[in-house]
What does this fold into?
Amino acid sequence: MNPRRFKIIFFLGGIAALALIGGVAFVSNQEQDDQFCASCHTQPESEYLARFQNALAQGRGIDLAAFHHRIQKASTRCIDCHGGEGLLGRAQVITISALDAFKHYTGLARQPAVIVIPVQNEACIKCHEDFVHKTGFENHMHNKMLDPDAPFLRCTDCHVTHRQGDERNGFQFRDAIFPQCEYCHVQMQKGPRGLK
Ligand code: HEC
Ligand code: HEC
Ligand code: HEC
Ligand code: HEC
Ligand code: HEC
It folds into this structure.
């Protein structure tokens, strides 16, 4: 390759790399802001965002996410659960986000959005580690999750996050929780089955 052309390619490559780093930095910075999410998304995101604001105004969250926003004095944002945990989780979310931005600006996006990257358990555990590890039978639905014989369970299969519920019962939904209790009992061949 002639050196001049090599220089040009090198130069263009450099610009592309900078643009990519810039794009990632831009997205990482912008996504800290909940309003940013609603700027592209219509439903259900604008609804979820409205619930955040209502939770502060009314002193009561209508779903588990809005409850978090209220209890943490507005410091829990969308990104605290949806950001991806660890290097790999973060990289996945950033890649998907870049794709999503592309889909948005080219009109290829589906609304409402479909979950591609489920909220990882680590997203909850980073704040709730002490509670999850608490020993004793009353807390066995959490601490048994760490048992090597236990099947993999998602925190969010039991703790459905954007379904409307009640703060007073901690947003517990039997129809979500009991099948998970049952599933673990069946897999571990311990504990009661046929919970209703
Ligand atoms: C540049 C526009 C844009 C912005 C800003 C944006 N999104 Fe999205 N998002 C999209 C598009 C497009 C999709 C994919 C829709 C589809 O499935 O075609 C998507 C998909 C999603 C999904 C489902 C896919 C998955 O990741 O599992 C979630 C959850 C989501 N967005 C949350 C958020 C949150 C939280 C924010 C703010 C931190 C945000 N979005 C900001 C455009 C955007
Ligand atoms: C406390 C954690 C938490 C917070 C805070 C949170 N989400 Fe979610 N979100 C979830 C979970 C859990 C799901 C269900 C999908 C899954 O299992 O990953 C979900 C699903 C979604 C979906 C997919 C559609 C649906 O209803 O399943 C969108 C879009 C979304 N969230 C946007 C947002 C936006 C926008 C905000 C901020 C206003 C937000 N979320 C705040 C945990 C959270
Ligand atoms: C099999 C279903 C199930 C799974 C999976 C599950 N939980 Fe729970 N969780 C419950 C139930 C039921 C309660 C209510 C317990 C009670 O009131 O004694 C609860 C309560 C909680 C509470 C509230 C404690 C309080 O102060 O009242 C937190 C926090 C919590 N879970 C976090 C998590 C996290 C983090 C994970 C994932 C590591 C998780 N849970 C997985 C069923 C589950
Ligand atoms: C940024 C920190 C943070 C994150 C992330 C977080 N939580 Fe919480 N959560 C809190 C705090 C603070 C409270 C209120 C004090 C308490 O009960 O521990 C709370 C309370 C709860 C409660 C009790 C609700 C009630 O009405 O009493 C449940 C259940 C819960 N969280 C589950 C989850 C799950 C599931 C996730 C992941 C999807 C999650 N949390 C992510 C900080 C967090
Ligand atoms: C991660 C796995 C797992 C989950 C989730 C789980 N269990 Fe269990 N459960 C067990 C195991 C294992 C035992 C056997 C007791 C032991 O070995 O300590 C058990 C035993 C029990 C027992 C019988 C106690 C006895 O004295 O024999 C009851 C009742 C029970 N579970 C209720 C529940 C309910 C209700 C839920 C959902 C909220 C639940 N479990 C979720 C693993 C689980």
Summary: Residues 10-19 have pLDDT under 50 and may be disordered. The pocket of heme C (ligand 4) is lined by residues 67-68, 71-72, 76, 80-81, 119, 123-124, 126-128, 155-156, 159, 161, 167, 170-171 (CB under 6 Å). The two ends are 73 Å apart (CA to CA). The CA atoms of residues 61 and 91 lie 31 Å apart.
